[in-house]
Structures are given as structure tokens and as C-alpha cells.
């Protein structure tokens, strides 16, 4: 199973901001598990599931933070259960970039076979129309 190990920047409420997150997927959901430690044992503290039918897109970006250290971010966009476009931004250590790229490629391959929700179809259609008419890009 494809997976990526990341830390949260924004977009989720965690039990502990320092906990590591493991991202996986199955045929229905993108699954984000918050993992903490009890002694020497890793335990799942929280699980977030995003229906793949509500998935808008993902991308890997490189930027800098306040202290001019390079940050490698993985951004996931989706439509929430109340119809809002939401983004989750993760940061990954340098050694996880290629792993996350492989994960993202496998996820996008899986998404080809997933029927999208009506809300996602409408949002993607609007973004495409704006792109065709030269309006500013919608940030997904």
C-alpha cells in the first residue's frame, strides 16, 4: 500500500501538533492517521477520511518559511461535507519528497477510476472555464 509520512502545517485539528501523520488511500478514501507514541509504541490518535469522490487535487510545492529554511509542502484540496473547498497543507522532510511524489502519482492513478461528486465536478468545471477565459486561477 502506498503511504507518505508528513507533519501538519494547516487544515486539520490534531491531538498534538507534533505528531506524525501517515497518509494512505483505498478505493474510497484518502486516509490520514495521526500517530503519537506511548512509550516506545506508535499508536493512532486520530483518523481523518476524505472521500475520493470529493477530492479536487494535490500538489507538491517548495517554499521558504520565516527563517528562510526551505519547506517542502504537500497540499491536498477537497470539498468538505458542507460543500466548502478545503485545503490541508503538510510539510515533509527532504528524505520523504520522493516517497510523497510516488504516493501522489499512485493516488492520482487511483482517482482516474473514481466517480467524482457533483460538487467536485461543478468546481472543476468553474476552474476550467476561468482558465479558458483568462481569469485568475482558482487555488485548489
Kindly list the characteristics that best describe this protein:
seven-stranded antiparallel β-sheet, single chain, 7 strands, PH-domain like, alpha+beta, 2 helices, 140 residues
N-to-C order of helices and strands? EEEEEEEHH
Tally of discrete structural domains: 1
CATH architectural type? Roll
The beta-strand count equals 7
By CATH's scheme, which homologous superfamily applies? Answer: Pleckstrin-homology domain (PH domain)/Phosphotyrosine-binding domain (PTB)
Q: Mean pLDDT, nearest integer?
A: 89
Strand content: 35-45%
The main β sheet shows up as: 7 strands, antiparallel
Strand order of the largest sheet: 4-3-2-1-7-6-5
CATH topology: PH-domain like
How would you characterize this protein structure?
By secondary structure, the chain is α+β, with helices and mostly antiparallel strands. It has a single domain, classed as Pleckstrin-homology domain (PH domain)/Phosphotyrosine-binding domain (PTB) (PH-domain like, Roll), CATH 2.30.29. It is built from 2 helices and 7 strands; from the N terminus they run βββββββαα. It has helices spanning 97-111, 118-132, and strands at 4-10, 20-25, 29-38, 41-51, 55-64, 70-79, 85-92. A 7-stranded antiparallel sheet has the order 4-3-2-1-7-6-5. Strand 6 (70-79) and strand 7 form a beta hairpin. The radius of gyration is 16 Å and the shape is globular.
In brief:
By secondary structure, the chain is α+β, with helices and mostly antiparallel strands. The protein has two helices and seven strands; from the N terminus they run βββββββαα.
Amino acid at each position: 500500500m502506498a503511504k507518505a509520512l508528513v507533519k501538519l502545517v494547516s487544515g486539520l485539528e490534531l491531538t498534538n501538533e507534533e505528531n506524525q501523520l501517515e497518509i494512505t488511500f483505498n478505493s474510497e478514501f484518502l486516509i490520514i492517521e495521526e500517530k503519537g507514541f506511548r512509550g516506545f509504541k506508535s499508536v493512532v490518535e486520530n483518523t481523518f477520511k476524505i472521500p475520493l469522490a470529493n477530492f479536487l487535487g494535490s500538489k507538491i510545492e517548495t517554499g521558504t518559511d520565516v527563517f528562510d529554511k526551505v519547506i517542502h509542502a504537500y497540499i491536498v484540496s477537497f470539498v468538505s461535507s458542507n460543500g466548502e473547498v478545503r485545503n490541508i497543507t503538510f510539510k515533509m522532510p527532504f528524505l520523504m519528497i520522493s516517497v510523497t511524489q510516488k504516493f501522489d502519482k499512485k493516488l492520482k492513478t487511483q482517482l482516474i477510476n473514481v466517480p467524482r461528486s457533483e460538487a467536485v465536478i461543478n468546481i472543476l468545471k468553474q476552474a476550467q472555464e476561468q482558465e479558458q477565459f483568462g481569469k485568475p486561477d482558482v487555488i485548489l
